[in-house]
Design a protein that fits this description.
There is one protein chain. This protein is α/β, with parallel strands linked by helices and about 725 residues long. Helix content is about 40%, strand content about 10%. The structure holds beta-D-glucopyranuronic acid.
Length: about 725
């Protein structure tokens, strides 16, 4: 016994420190310090019924065996007798059965959905988890564990839920050399060099985390693609990952470099209409499916930012996408073709994707989805929704969000994405009259589509806590939860994450939730208020550079976006300007085109206004800019105070990391505020209103700040 003690202490300590560093994400399974609740949970989990074995049902066992002892200090016991079971996983129990005299809503579920029912009608109380598939049961197991982590009384465990969207995918912008484009959490978790032999346990933890929030696919490679991943040597590595992810319901996808037939196939062309090219892709796809029978398909960035594509051969996006789709169709694979295109000859980048893709509506195969970024430009802190949503009724269309914080604070800012995503999902396109929200386009209900999807550009790297900033984990979590159910309120998602990850103490939960929910608007205020956009430094996009004007290509320069001069500021997208507003349905166009109805938040997206233009707030544009920049900084100050007030409830390592990062966020928010205010003041020529403090540095100082080695830019 004496000899055991040091070993035991070591185990406890290492488990705790690993947890402290955030490795376990929201799957912490903290001990439940509530005797009444624990007792009830213990009684239920002392007899768990599972319908047999399969890799997925074994994943359910693995998770229960991990979670229950940690949360309750007792082992899970399994039974083969339904009558005596406290927790029942089932795909076919009849509600008429005398074994379970409770109503079981199987008919309300789709293939991946599940229900959790408390059944206390007679005899031993039971929790029933029902689904139509093993994967549904796995999601149900994670649903149950979530409820337990949130301390639901068993009697309150009652939910019926199915994902509204079919493909819920992470997009990794991971390069084969393990750098991650726009990654702020270390290097890629795919250790290609040691694959296929070494199966890092982290791959399974990755799958567990994703399955726990309903993510069912992962694109392993960067959209700026490398054809090497399609060679046999690399496909064997991909196969290993696919095999590890399969029990968790996660399909693997790859980015397809359009010129791969030339680069690795020794063909002279990649023309999508050439027979040799078509055959090359058919053979390549056959080879992939022989290794990975449930391979998901391809994601393609073509003719965008220097990537090859069908237009290199005077073919259309539809020609390119359909050629790949035809190769994949016999195997059940799909193509996700990105709409992120903006040719240099276009007058307004806002218009680019719509102008190219709208005319192609109806021309894509059934197994093609057009993947559209949330806004018309590029994941900016605030963008109006892309006018493509709702505009292509005959085309499958999926949403692309960014989880990694390229334009929203990168490695150092606490920024919660849920309100950011929801603003777009809830926006009304008016495509079929009032209530035609972006969300209804994405979930297919507006136009009766069944092939639907949401993608999130991953924020995962090999940092011990996966995401770098401890609060960046909440963004991965929120993405999954919203991809499953876009109607979940941001506050509910925040609260779930806080309780599972940080603390249950109600005052702390309330304060941290406040920080998270206000972090979104705070960042918009100190970076790009009232419709400013793309005024970051070029290349790495870290830090402000509204004066940027060095690229020959106009639409890579900040001055192109804000158009400030002594007469005013903003981009005129009305009929008198680029007329990009005409891409929206009438009601949206009318709302935005009239400065009197255009929400202040979007003003400079659509209007060029004089500095003394009156906002709805009653302030002039100049005063409003100052107000927002200063308010944004003040919000960060208030977050620091709130965070300090919860110290005693947070694990020290995480408390400290967030504390230090908030200080850094304040420094950067001040940098943004002062650099932008001083720059725009050279045009407005008006004083900074009282009582705002004067910037401590000059504009020259900010212009001369040189940033070396900002992360995520390779
Ligand atoms: C931009 C990123 C760039 C990506 C591009 C894309 O700066 O690194 O390659 O989007 O989505 O936001 O293709």
């Amino acid at each position: 016994m004496k000899n055991f003690l040091p070993v035991f202490c070591f185990l406890i300590l290492s488990a705790c420190c690993h947890a402290q560093a955030g490795y376990h994400l929201w799957l912490n399974y903290n001990y439940i310090n509530n005797p009444t609740l624990s007792k009830q949970y213990r009684e239920l989990t002392s007899a768990v019924y599972l319908p047999g074995h399969s890799p997925t049902l074994d994943a359910v066992r693995y998770e229960l065996n991990k979670a229950i002892p940690a949360m309750l200090g007792s082992n899970v016991l399994y039974t083969r007798d339904i009558r005596s079971a406290g927790v029942i996983f089932t795909k076919n129990l009849s509600e008429k059965s005398d074994q379970v005299p409770c109503s079981l809503p199987f008919e309300a579920l789709n293939e991946e959905g599940y229900f959790i029912r408390y059944c206390g009608a007679s005899g031993k109380p039971k929790i029933i988890i029902g689904a139509k598939s093993d994967i549904g049961l796995l999601y149900g197991a994670f649903g149950l564990l979530r409820m337990m982590q949130l301390h639901f009384a068993p009697q309150k465990m009652n939910t019926t839920t199915s994902p509204a969207v079919k493909l819920r995918l992470l997009n990794h912008w991971d390069n084969l050399n393990r750098t991650v484009e726009r990654g702020y959490a270390g290097f890629s978790i795919w250790n290609w060099h040691t694959l296929p032999e070494y199966r890092d346990p982290r791959y399974t933890d990755y799958a567990r985390a994703n399955a726990s929030i309903g993510i069912n696919g992962t694109v392993l490679t960067n959209v700026n693609a490398n054809a090497t991943v399609l060679t046999r040597e690399w496909l064997l590595k991909v196969k290993t990952l696919a095999d590890l992810f399969r029990p968790y319901g996660i399909k693997v996808y790859l980015t397809a470099r359009f010129s791969a037939p030339i680069e690795i196939g020794k063909l002279k062309t990649a023309d999508p209409l050439s027979d040799s090219v078509k055959n090359w892709w058919k053979e390549k796809v056959r080879e992939i499916y022989a290794l990975i029978p449930d391979f998901g398909g391809f994601l393609v960035k073509a003719n965008s930012e220097g990537q090859p594509g069908p237009q290199d051969y005077n073919r259309s996006h539809a020609d390119g996408a359909n050629m790949l789709a035809d190769a994949l169709a016999p195997h059940g694979g799909i193509v996700m073709w990105r709409a992120f295109v903006y040719r240099p000859d276009i007058t307004d980048r806002f218009r680019a994707a719509y102008d190219e893709f709208k005319p192609l509506d109806g021309k894509f195969r059934d197994n093609v989805l057009i993947q559209v970024k949330n806004g018309p430009i590029d994941f900016q802190p605030r963008e109006p929704f892309s006018p493509l949503f709702g505009a292509m009724p005959q085309t499958n269309m999926m949403m692309e969000f960014q989880i990694t914080q390229e334009y929203v604070g990168q490695a150092t800012h606490l920024f919660f994405v849920a309100p950011w995503y929801k603003e777009v999902l809830d926006a009304d396109t008016y495509a079929k009259g009032k209530g035609s929200t972006v969300s209804k386009v994405v979930d297919g209900s507006l136009y009766g589509k069944t092939l639907t999807g949401v993608a999130g550009v991953s924020n995962i790297g090999n940092d011990i806590n996966w995401c770098g900033h401890p609060f960046a984990q909440a963004n991965w979590y929120a993405f999954g939860r919203l991809a499953w159910n876009a109607t979940l309120p941001a506050g509910e998602i925040a609260e779930e994450w806080i309780k599972q990850t940080l603390t249950h103490e109600s005052l702390a939960v309330q304060r941290i939730k406040h920080i998270m929910l206000h972090s979104t608007e705070a960042l918009i205020n100190y970076m790009t208020p009232i419709g400013l956009t793309h005024i970051m430094q070029d290349g790495h996009h870290y830090g402000p550079m509204p004066w940027g004007n060095s690229f020959q290509r106009a639409d890579w320069n900040p001055v192109y976006y804000h158009r400030a001069d002594t007469n005013g500021i903003g981009f005129d997208r009305t009929e008198k300007g680029s007329n990009a507003l005409s891409q929206y349905f009438t009601e949206v166009k009318q709302l935005f085109e009239n400065p009197a109805t255009c929400p202040d938040e979007y003003l400079l997206w659509f209007h060029r206004v004089p500095w003394h233009h009156k906002m709805k707030s009653g302030r002039t544009v100049w005063e409003e800019l100052c107000y927002r920049y200063y308010t944004g900084v003040d919000s960060v100050r208030s977050f620091i105070k709130l965070w300090r007030s919860v110290e005693k409830w947070i694990q020290p390592a995480i408390y400290r990391q967030v504390s230090d990062l908030l200080e850094r966020q304040l420094y950067e928010a001040l940098w943004w505020r002062d650099a932008c205010i001083l720059y725009f003041q050279t045009f407005s020529k008006m004083p900074i209103p009282k009582p705002y403090e004067a910037p401590k540095q000059t504009l020259e100082y900010f212009k001369n700040l040189k940033i070396n080695y900002a992360p995520g830019h390779w």
